């Protein structure tokens, strides 16, 4: 157990020299080649969806959805994230929200974005609905 402590481990300078029996010189130590950074999977979003600038800040949001919808969305993400070039599950959800917002803008606002409103949304279910 004592050997596991850092102070008791042999240092690099304490390591024995490895001698090649054929040539009476030290065997050169090979340094590993630096591994190239992985290339990101990218796929352009469909032209019908407006793309947000990549510099735009992201915010966390909490929503409640039915268990069956959550399970289906997670299964769809796992089955298609490579094909659709989703960076993450959040990226897929953002695309889904963006598609629905765009659909509503086209259907109800002549394709223009609705005016931004920073007021809080009402909590809970609407009364009388």
UniProtKB/TrEMBL annotation:
InterPro entries: ParB-like_C. It comes from the Bacteria. Residues 1-64, 108-129 are annotated as: Disordered. Residues 72-112 form the ParB-like C-terminal domain. Transmembrane segments: none annotated. It holds the Pfam family CB_ParB_C. This is ParB-like C-terminal domain-containing protein. It comes from Microbacterium aurantiacum.
